[in-house]
Amino acid sequence: MYNTLTRTKQDFVPRTPGRVDIYQCGITPYDYTHMGHARQYVFWDTVRRYLKWRGFEVFCVQNVTDVDDKIIAKANERGTTPADIATQYHEDFLDVMDRLGVQRPDVFPKVTDHIQDIIRVIAGLVEKGYAYQADGDVFFDVARFPSYGKLSRRSPDEMLAGARVEVNPKKRSAIDFALWKASKPGEPAWESPWGPGRPGWHIECSALALKYLGSGFDFHGGGDELIFPHHENEIAQSEAYTGQEPFARYFVHHAMLSVGDAKMSKSLGNFFAVRDVLREYEPGVIRYYFASKHYRSPANYGADELDSARRAYERLRATLEAARRCLAAPQRGGHADGTEPGVTPAASAARDEAATRAENSPTDELSEAARGAREKFIQGMDDDFNTAVALAAIHDLARCVNDVLHSGSEVDRSALQLAVGAMEELGGILGLFREEGDGGTSGEAETVEGLVKLLVDVRGELRAKREWALADRIRGGLRDLGIILEDTPSGTVWKRER
After folding, report:
1. Beta strands 19-24 and 217-223, pairing class
2. Which of 24, 230, 465, 469 is most buried as measured by Cβ atoms within 10 A of its Cβ?
3. Does any domain span residue 228?
4. Of 280, 296, 321, which residue constitutes the final position of a domain?
5. What is the pTM of this model?
């Protein structure tokens, strides 16, 4: 894993053998969830799937910042309450994440449900001399924490440059940050030892992470724009409060999604809501797009990128569907026991054994490709969760499956089943090949599949009766609808035209 704390790749050693504890910075729900958000949560969903596949127990905490300046501003603009705004947009987040196949975290703590936990941490920092109060506000005294800056590696001058945008005469230093904010008229507020108010942004994550994971948990995730000041401040206040370090052992930051030369963000107004993108692209395409980029590599978002991902994803799925049809089709000219007419079981078995021993046969290559795909997939994911390499492993296997399906030879079903199983298994870790989408797409897909299979079976019966005209009519009609039939030695398979 690449650890932002050390700026190096490090072998991952979990705090607790066999278990991985993860904290993800969650959303601030004041607008629709956009594709920049989706990059983070799809990535961490993939990480969790992979770790579980490798045998780890995984425990994930993801907060919800449901009280914030932007939520309050949106509520005032609409004449409603901050709670209504937070609920509306958090429900949108849950909906689109479900549709993308992102598994929900084990704990989904909301800030407003944990105010007393947050106050307890702030009070502890005040008692230990790391924080001070000023007219109802409470600030963290950065000068009291000598290792401040160890994550971002920013110099004091760089920190001050960033802090000057918000000058506050109550602070001892411009880079001190708020732990508790005194209430203003019309804002939500809670009682505290320093008067009514609400938590600062950074302390929320520290209090929730410490409550559910304790000190020294494994992974802390978020976008690289959070390195400073958010995660830097989390480290300072958490380690000052507990007296233990590290707060988190591996800080894992993904690169931002950009639109042209600017990062995608709500504040810039250049974001694309996931709910809108899902109207044009199915979930598998979006997940494929994210998986094709290493999480630390910048990625540009646009229709060209999504269309390219769709074409590549549909090629993979077409191969998988063709292989499934081949496995489902009855063996041509065979008996129920798998032998051929006029061939004794003993002769058939001898021939199969010889074929198995044959070097460089298509089926041998297919079995080897399935094993090789797993090895390459693991190598990629074990190297800092390189999903691009893992995805390439699935493509390599798909090319071998295509070669076998179009080789003109009888397909060894056991080898093909091994390959199909590998594609499904590895694709599932990346969240691919799901037939879920908006408005009951899964049911529609099952209906189409059943109807095509029925027509394929009817066409097979017509061909057996030598009624070629009707058989060709079915084939031509399906082709007009974008369904291509291929007659192979193992039976008829179909795929969607791309």
Report:
1. parallel
2. 24
3. yes
4. 280
5. 0.82
* Angstrom distance (rounded) from CA 139 to CA 170: 9
Handedness of CA 167, 169, 170, 175 (dihedral sign): positive
CATH of the domain at 115: 3.40.50.620
Mean pLDDT of the chain: 89
pLDDT at 489: 62
**Spatial separation of the C-alpha atoms in residues 397 and 367, rounded to whole Å:** 10
Least confident range of 54-63, 186-195, 344-353: 344-353
Q: Which domain covers residue 45, as residue numbers? A: 12-129+201-280
Structure tokens at 491: 């039976």
In a domain, 168, yes or no: no
Residue of 80, 438, 408 lying closest to 274 (CA atoms):
438
